[in-house]
Amino acid sequence: MARIEIDNLTKVYDSGDESIVAVEDLDLEVEDGEFLVLVGPSGCGKSTTLRCIAGLEDVTEGSLRFGERDVTALRGSERDVAMVFQNYALYPHMTVRENIGFGLKLSTKLTAAEISERVESVASMLGITDLLEDKPKELSGGQQQRVALGRAIVREPAVFLMDEPLSNLDAKLRAEMRTELQELQQDLDVTTVYVTHDQTEAMAMGDRVAVMNDGVLQQVGPPEGIYRQPVNEFVANFIGSPSINMLTAEIDGDSLTGPAGFSYRLSDTTSVKGHSRVRVGVRPEDITITDDGPNSATVSVVEPMGNENFCYMELGDHELTARIDPDLRPRAGETVRFTFDEEALYLFDADSGAALKTKSDAVAPGIETEVSS
User: Fold this and answer.
1) Is the peptide bond preceding residue 294 cis, with omega within 30 degrees of 0?
2) Which of the chain's termini has less CB crowding within 10 Å, N or C?
3) Which of 72, 55, 5, 75 shows the shortest CA–CA distance to 34?
4) β-strands 35-39, 191-196 pairing
5) For the CA atoms of 17, 20, 25, 29, what is the dihedral angle to 10 degrees?
6) Distance between CA atoms of 34 and 186, rounded to whole angstroms?
7) Does the pLDDT at position 205 exceed 50?
């Protein structure tokens, strides 16, 4: 196992007359045995960061350390890492047994018997012992994923690196494999960096979550801390499904005034002092539809989800989403009144997007943040 330290990492790609900064001045630490998830939209730099850690990309500036060892200039084969890719990258002409053991055969001096023992042990752990003599084309997507994991596990590396390994699976199998991966990582206690664009996956799996955008680390911390206390509007928008409701409001004394007659009175104006305009955010689960709500919106669609309904409403040009009781199903076109508690209100600077007020005044234990400039 190893602790990963990333100091001021920058990766620049030169393309003719243009330079593309894929990762900019990244500082990040991954504790020994931790499961850290890198999450963000396509092109945010998360996979490039992972490839730099793996030694598949050269670092333009900055350094990487595994424990006490500086690995910045080392080749991937010298870093003691194992990587699981999105496309599994199995050898089609080899059996499952040969695929799992191939890396050991190339990179170690283990005997054939020792390799076979390791392969069978890992196969048993992953529940694929009966597939050892099969070829990849005979396997389902989930089985191929287990083989790819087995090939990484059998090497007993200091660091696991996973690049969107579940993206090719259907929704049900993804949920199952998510649980299996968490249990596996806990059993092996290996430092793991996991990349995904799926924020639900990130929230469910990570000990900590690192949110990236445009090559810059936005925030890193425990999933609940990221969700409840985003440092800026980007993080608030990206983390959470359905997404947070956002609108622009003017400050009028102790009231927020916005589109289509929206108005909300604040009992505490400390967070908006010195501001004339803010961005207002409310999570869907915090909106309550009630007869005496201070604001109204027009229902456009209600989606029954079984244990809850998603109610989509129009407030002027803005769409609001509310998680509501499954027994409550207003009709499309109906005008409903809604409210929310001030404690649940998020406020952001209208220009910079920096958080002025989040869901709780208390900072979650262990949360660390970095805000893009």
Assistant:
1) no
2) C
3) 5
4) parallel
5) -140
6) 9
7) yes
The domain locations on the chain are 4-228, 246-357
pTM: 0.89
Q: Where are the alpha helices (DSSP H) in the chain?
A: 46-54, 96-107, 112-126, 141-153, 171-188, 199-205, 223-228, 233-238
Per-residue tokens: 223: 């999933």
The predicted structure's pLDDT at residue 267: 95
Neighbours of 366 (CB within 10 A): 10
> Phi and psi of 27, rounded to 5°?
-115, 125
Q: Report the sign of the C-alpha dihedral through residues 328, 331, 336, 338, in that order.
A: positive
Residues 6+ apart with CB under 8 A from 67: 2, 3, 32, 158
Mean pLDDT of 138-148: 91
246-357 fold: OB fold (Dihydrolipoamide Acetyltransferase, E2P) (2.40.50)
For residue 64, which amino acid is it?
A: L
